[in-house]
Design a protein that fits this description.
Helix content: 55-70%
Order of helices and strands: HHEHEHEHEHHHEH
CATH architecture: 3-Layer(aba) Sandwich
Number of strands: 5
InterPro entries: LAP1C-like_C_sf, TOIP1/2, TOIP1/2_C
Shape: elongated
Oligomer: single chain
Membrane topology: Single-pass membrane protein
CATH topology: Rossmann fold
Keywords: Glycoprotein, Membrane, Nucleus, Phosphoprotein, Transmembrane, Transmembrane helix
Largest sheet: 5 strands, parallel
Protein name: Torsin-1A-interacting protein 1/2 AAA+ activator domain-containing protein
GO molecular function: ATPase activator activity
Strand order of the largest sheet: 2-3-4-1-5
Structural class: alpha/beta
């Protein structure tokens, strides 16, 4: 009897010993499953919060831009309504896109009576866009620096824009395009080539000062675009390209390629009596 009792106890001990690993395995599986579920929930939560912040941030940025444009309209009361409508629509559309496929590009032009206003307004507009993205802006002026040749100017523009965009700049002004050496503007292929542009989440404002004393107030945008195009053609190529400009620097095909990338929107800037007042606070 004791013999059978011993066998029975021994069997129960063996069953208990065999069940312990099973219970341990079950506990480990349960713990692992819990950790996986918790991790999954955490990841979903991070993604949700990130998207929520992004949407909120875009709304705040757009409101900031609209407020800035409102201030600009008050500071520059002589400007044509088409300037504000077209520029605001293009820049707002760009701001509304969290992953734009190409940069926002505006070409502003003026006659000599609005020379100061052209620089002032383009800087203020670039600043408004940059503020909406919590960034800074860069200005490159074709009249403030003398270059030995187009290659030097091209390198300077490239280094200035890339350094700015890699840092905190969200907008740039390329002022007085017509004053730059012809070959230098080919760098705009890099920054304005639609979906192939090096930086897409930025705005680039290009200005051209026409030789006219004043712009015809009745000139429509199509006529203005053609006027600027013809002026740049004469400036960079001339009536006889072989006289003064090396064909390797600029020719009609190259200029047409640049023009097609920067002339989506050509807008007129009118003179302001208080333009100095409007730019006194621009950093």
């Amino acid at each position: 009897m004791k013999y059978y009792q011993g066998l029975s106890e021994r069997g129960e001990n063996q069953e208990n010993e065999q069940s312990r690993p099973n219970k341990t395995t079950q506990m480990l599986c349960l713990l692992l499953g819990t950790l996986l579920i918790a991790s999954f929930i955490a990841v979903i939560g991070v993604i949700f919060v990130s998207e929520l912040k992004q949407k909120h941030g875009e709304s705040v940025n757009l409101n900031a831009f609209q407020a800035q444009v409102g201030e600009l309209q008050s500071a520059f009361p002589s400007q044509n309504e088409i300037l504000w409508k077209r520029s605001q629509r293009i820049l707002e559309r760009h701001l509304n896109n969290s992953q734009p496929k190409e940069p926002a590009i505006l070409l502003l032009t003026a006659a000599t009576d609005a020379e100061e206003t052209l620089l002032c307004l383009s800087r203020r507009l670039a600043r408004a866009y940059a503020i909406s993205r919590k960034g800074s802006y860069t200005v490159i002026s074709g009249t403030q620096r003398t270059f030995d040749d187009g290659k030097e100017a091209k390198m300077f523009i490239d280094e200035t824009l890339s350094r700015g965009f890699e840092a905190s700049a969200k907008a740039a002004v390329l002022h007085r395009l017509e004053s730059l050496p012809p070959g230098s503007i080919l760098i705009l292929y890099k920054y304005c080539d639609h979906e192939n542009a090096a930086y897409k989440n930025v705005a680039l404002l290009i200005t051209v000062l026409l030789p006219d004393e004043t712009l015809d107030p009745n000139m429509d945008l199509k006529e203005l675009e053609e006027k600027v195009r013809d002026f740049l053609k004469d400036k960079f190529i001339g009536s006889n390209p072989d006289e003064n400009i090396s064909h390797s620097d600029m020719d009609m095909d190259k200029l047409s390629g640049v023009w097609s990338r920067i002339a989506h929107v050509v807008l007129p800037v009118r003179p302001e009596s208080n333009n100095q007042e409007g730019c006194k606070d621009v950093e």
